[in-house]
Design a protein that fits this description.
Shape: elongated
Structural class: alpha/beta
Helix content: 40-55%
Distance between the termini: 137 Å
Radius of gyration: 46 Å
Strand content: 15-25%
Strand order of the largest sheet: 19-20-18-17-22-25-26
Length: 800
């Protein structure tokens, strides 16, 4: 085919990635870019089917510009073109001549270019002929040593007498970089080009010889099934040949630096170095190598020598506690005592504080305040529902997905060796077939043992002596005795109504206003409004329900401000129903007046004090006593004791001694889905029984608590403060409690005492004297100093 005039013709141009096409060579290409495919189609429309092929400088460039391609390429003829199903085009081209780009047109469809042919310089002297013979011999040696080239290619090369064409052909067989191939294309002096290719060929021969030496040295240690080991040895020998400093390169060197910086010692350092040596001999892609990397990462990220600097300043600590919490004076005092001891003692004993109280009273926030007061990092471990010992001690690395236990993870998260760690809900750990996590906690919390706590995953001791552990619990009933002995219990009672108002104004409302994007000018809530919300929409020991109610008001006010574009909203007590709906909590005085067979009792639960209604009905029968409401064994025994007392003192109480022969008695405590137990409902059940049998109504607004004996004595019970606070929340006016609990009244705030009539009793007769009076303030106060005999006569007279 006749060659077109290159000086006047514009040819389509295709930028190539990782390919250099030489003249007189037939080369297959795969084309996928739209511009390149368009250039091919344009070339096929030409009579000469010519296209300019130029290599890209950066093969990753998807949209090359003029500066991204070389300016010397090859003018080639398109011989065949085949479109593949995936849209790629396979094309076969034959190089015609070297060309240089004179002008490049970046057409939207494809590149076009004006080119000029590059004439080669030919020399036919003795040195050129000698160079041809030497180069052919080198190529023959290369073909035999690499065994990557078909020996028949050697016949085609040995018959070429032109140095330029010989250089081009040999360059296509060598594994060269694109830049080296391009350099070969750009050299126009054929002898100089052959010298350049000869140098490249010598380098490839040396690399082939070195590879053979490496292969021979590794072959002696190779087993048939150890291909991965062979590749690793091959890489190591290559590094030795290159004189690489293995301690300063790659992953191994990085781990060595991390281990040095981690300040490990003893067993931990030995474990780390041993595992690093194992990793160095393994293939990086192996599964075991990934396990070792995870283990080493855990070791080097643990704070083996990093500590927070303790700052124990009692005035500052007291200020922090007061800023973060309202009330809780005794709890704060005990925390300050704890901090004072830690400051004075050179080696303070590892006292483990345990804050016990109902939900929402600030146990978690108190621990955060302790960490802030000590200038230490804080970390929290939720122990609720844990039934596997490995959650505490960690999993052994033989298991898939093994990881350290919660303790080590908490220390790692804190980033220091002496954080404050909160053990939340410590009583909710349970035993199972996987072990007893409470037993594992014994070592963690024992100051004589935790100095060398060994996590199963680490398999090396880690000192927990400097860690401050603080536990929280709603109740200590589920805590085993050995674990309980390691705890110093600080009890938090529920908040009073006045304390809740102050907490809402000082802490909850500012936080909610910021969270909802409001300001104090946009939303104004009066103290009377907060108090009404507490009375009508919450009945709890803490403030979580109160916070949810206030958050509801904030959301509705925010919606109102955006919708109506109003400047501010003031929420008054009478508007509460608009935001929160009707009242959810009714006071006892609003539910019923004096009734027969119904008494309000007081109980203590994990969530604080509660009121419970004790109901007794009598009906014709044969003297059977029926107990319902999911009562526990202790409560059932209290009911039996009360029933026995009434039967044995029926005549003195003004009741028919044979009443049980014709009556069945049914005692029920509502909310039957909730289990109930404990002795404190004893005098409540006795009072309800006497009321039902004698048909005398019990005063309204009265609540009772106390254990009863067969002789009618009233014994002390626990949780008096929480029960008194529950009575206040329920609108009770008079509380009867055992005289043995008078000492517990010191914990009840004075303004709570002023809102209640608290009446200590030591016998059931005193209870009857108060409970069956329709107007009781004056008489009830008088009965406190009356002797027991007078109380019995008064009760007997009124029953009759």
């Amino acid at each position: 085919m006749p060659m077109a005039d290159l000086t006047t013709t514009i040819f389509p141009l295709i930028p190539l990635r990782d390919v250099v096409v030489f003249p007189q060579m037939v080369t297959p290409l795969f084309v996928s870019r739209a511009k390149s495919i368009s250039a091919l189609e344009q070339a096929l429309l030409r009579d000469d089917r010519l296209v300019v092929l130029v290599a890209q400088k950066d093969p990753e460039c998807e949209e090359p510009q003029e500066e991204d391609i070389y300016h010397v390429g090859t003018l080639a003829e398109v011989m065949q073109m085949l479109k593949l199903p995936d849209g790629t085009v396979k094309v076969l081209v034959e190089g015609s001549c070297r060309v240089s780009l004179d002008f490049l047109y970046d057409d939207p469809q494809h590149f076009q270019a004006k080119v000029s042919e590059q004439e080669e310089t030919l020399r036919d002297d003795l040195s050129t002929k000698t160079l041809i013979r030497v180069t052919v011999e080198k190529f023959e040696q290369y073909v035999k040593s690499t065994k990557k080239i078909n020996p028949e290619s050697l016949l085609a090369v040995s018959g070429i007498g032109q140095p330029g064409r010989l250089a081009d052909i040999i360059a296509t067989y060598l594994s060269l970089e694109v830049s080296e191939r391009q350099r070969c294309l750009e050299i126009l002096d054929s002898t100089a080009r052959l010298e350049f290719v000869g140098q490249l060929l010598s380098r490839e021969l040396e690399l082939a010889d070195l590879e053979q030496q490496i292969h021979d040295r590794v072959r002696f240690n190779l087993e048939k099934t150890q291909r991965e080991y062979y590749l690793r040895e091959k890489l190591r020998i290559i590094q030795d040949e290159l004189n690489a400093d293995s301690e300063q390169m790659g992953e191994i060197a990085e781990y060595k630096q991390k281990i040095a910086r981690a300040k490990m010692s003893g067993v931990a350092l030995e474990r780390a170095q041993k595992e690093l040596q194992r990793l160095e001999k393994m293939m990086p892609q192996s599964a075991e190598a990934a396990v070792i990397r995870t283990y080493l990462d855990t070791l080097v990220t643990l704070p083996w020598g990093k500590r927070s600097r303790d700052v124990i300043d009692l005035p500052r600590s007291e200020q922090i506690l007061n800023e973060d919490h309202y009330g809780l004076d005794k709890v704060k005092e005990r925390i300050l005592e704890y901090l004072a001891v830690r400051k004075l003692a050179r080696h303070p004993q590892g006292t483990i504080l345990c804050l016990v109280g109902p939900p929402g009273v600030g146990k978690t926030s108190l621990v955060k305040s302790i960490a802030r007061a000590m200038n230490r990092k804080f970390s929290r471990i939720s122990l609720g529902g844990i039934n596997d010992e490995a959650e505490i001690r960690g999993h052994r690395r033989t298991y898939i997905g093994a990881m350290p236990g919660r303790i080590i993870q908490a220390v790692k998260q804190a980033g220091t060796k002496n954080p404050v760690i909160l053990l939340d809900e410590i009583e909710k750990m349970t035993r199972s077939y996987m072990g007893d996590p409470t037993a594992a906690m014994l070592e963690v919390l024992d100051p004589d043992q935790n100095d060398s706590f060994t996590d199963h995953y680490l398999d090396a001791p880690f000192s927990l002596r400097e860690v401050v552990f603080v536990a929280t619990a709603n109740s200590l009933e589920g805590v085993p005795r050995p674990l309980y002995d390691r705890l110093e219990v600080i009890r938090l009672s529920g908040y009073t109504e006045e304390e809740k108002v102050q907490i809402a104004e000082r802490h909850i409302l500012p936080k909610l206003l910021e969270k909802h994007g409001l300001t104090g000018r946009q939303l104004k809530i009066q103290a009377a409004t907060v108090r009404r919300i507490i009375q009508e929409h919450t009945r709890e020991a803490g403030v979580r329900a109160l916070e949810r109610a206030l958050a509801t008001i904030c959301r509705k006010v925010a919606t109102q401000i955006v919708r109506e574009n109003c400047g501010s909203v003031k929420v008054e007590p009478k508007q509460i129903a608009r935001y929160l709906g009707p009242a959810r909590v009714l006071r006892e005085s609003e539910t019923h007046g004096p009734q027969v067979g119904i008494v309000t009792g007081l109980a203590w639960t994990e969530t604080g004090g509660e009121t419970l209604s004790i109901e007794v009905n009598t009906m014709r029968g044969k003297g059977r006593l029926q107990l319902t409401g999911q009562l526990g064994d202790v409560m059932k025994e209290s009911a039996q004791a009360a029933f026995s007392y009434i039967r044995s003192h029926a005549e003195r109480l003004g009741i028919d001694p044979g009443f049980q022969e014709g009556l069945d008695v049914h005692i029920h405590i509502p909310e039957g889905a909730i289990p109930k137990d404990g002795p404190s409902a004893g005098i409540g059940m006795a009072l309800a029984l006497i009321s039902a049998v004698s048909k005398r109504p019990v005063r309204a607004n009265l609540a009772v608590t106390g254990e009863i004996t067969l002789r009618g004595r009233v014994l002390a019970v626990g949780g008096l403060k929480e029960k008194v606070l529950a009575a206040v929340r329920a609108g009770i006016k008079t509380v009867i409690f055992p005289r043995g609990n008078e000492k517990d009244l010191q914990e009840v705030p004075d303004y709570v005492k002023s809102r209640l009539e608290l009446m200590p009793v030591s016998h059931l007769d005193e209870v009857l004297a108060v409970a069956f009076k329709s107007k009781g303030k004056g008489n009830a106060g008088k009965s406190r100093g009356v002797q027991r005999v007078a109380s019995r006569r008064s009760a007997l007279g009124r029953i009759k």
